[in-house]
Structure formats: structure tokens, C-alpha cells
Amino acid sequence: MKKGILIVACFMLNSVLINELNAGNAVSSAYSSKKAGWKKVANQAWPGVKDGTTYWYKIDKMAKLWWSTDGKQWAAVEDGAWMDKDGKWLKIYKGKLVWSTDGKQWDAVPEWKWQGSDGKWYKFDQHWTLWVND
């Protein structure tokens, strides 16, 4: 009788452990697929529109902003700002990404994400690497 109770207890414990492990894998898989939506941008450039012209923007290792109309010849952006899809101005200020609707009052950009003129979402990580969510 004691052996029977011991076997049933071991079986129940084994079932609980297997269910816990499977639940842990499901959470991990969901997290991985959600994170997989963000991809590192190969050329580290994103589009923006100013005065009806599409520009390509990128930042250098010092977080200085550059722009180009053809993606080949780049020039420094004097004010260091670009515009998102909704018309907000963004720039890097004191090591942080900030935005403004009027160019006077600047606020921190949540999660360093913005929507580009192409409708895609972009973000910088803490090393200023550009990511896109397709």
C-alpha cells in the first residue's frame, strides 16, 4: 500500500513539473516572437520627408545626424532634427532622443520609438543602433 501511494505521489509530482516546464516554454516562445519583430537596419538609415522631398537620415558613432537624398552622398544636418510621420520634430539632445511639435518645448521620446514617413516603426537602442519593426 505504501508503495502504491509513493508511486501515485511521484506520478503527480512528475505531471506538475512537466506542466510547469511546458508553461515556461510557451512564455519564452511568445517573448521571442514578439522580440523577433524588431530587426536591425542594415544600412542604419531611415526615411523622412521635408518640404515634399524624401530624405534618408542616419547618425554616426557620436550620435550626430546626417541626411541624403540618394543614400550615397551625406551631409550633416545643422539643427540635428528630423520629422516623423505625424509632423513631430525629433533630435538627439544630451544623449537622449527627444521630440517637439513646435521646436521649442522638447520632451523625451518613450522607448526611443517613432514612426517613419514610410509608416514603419523605428527605434534606437542604448548604443544608437537603429531597429525597425516590419
What does this structure look like?
With 134 residues, the chain is α+β, with helices and mostly antiparallel strands. It folds into two domains: 2-36; 40-133, no CATH class. Helix content is 25%, strand content 36%. It has one helix at residues 2-35; strands at residues 38-40, 45-50, 53-59, 65-68, 75-76, 81-83, 89-93, 96-100, 107-108, 113-115, 121-124, 130-133. The strands form three sheets. It has a four-stranded antiparallel sheet with strand order 1-12-11-10, with no helix packed on it. The longest helix has 34 residues, at 2-35. The chain is globular and about 85 Å long. 9% of the residues are buried.
Summarize the structure.
The chain is of the alpha+beta class.
Layout of helices and strands:
Blueprint: H1 2-35, E1 38-40, E2 45-50, E3 53-59, E4 65-68, E5 75-76, E6 81-83, E7 89-93, E8 96-100, E9 107-108, E10 113-115, E11 121-124, E12 130-133
Antiparallel strand pairs: 1-12, 2-3, 3-4, 4-5, 6-7, 7-8, 8-9, 10-11, 11-12
Protein name: WWE domain-containing protein
What order do the strands of the largest sheet run in, or round the barrel if closed?
Answer: 1-12-11-10
Largest beta-sheet characterization: 4 strands, antiparallel
Helix coverage percent of residues?
25-40%
Number of domains: 2
Q: Give the number of DSSP strands.
A: 12
Q: Termini distance?
A: 61 Å
Organism: Niabella pedocola
Protein name: WWE domain-containing protein
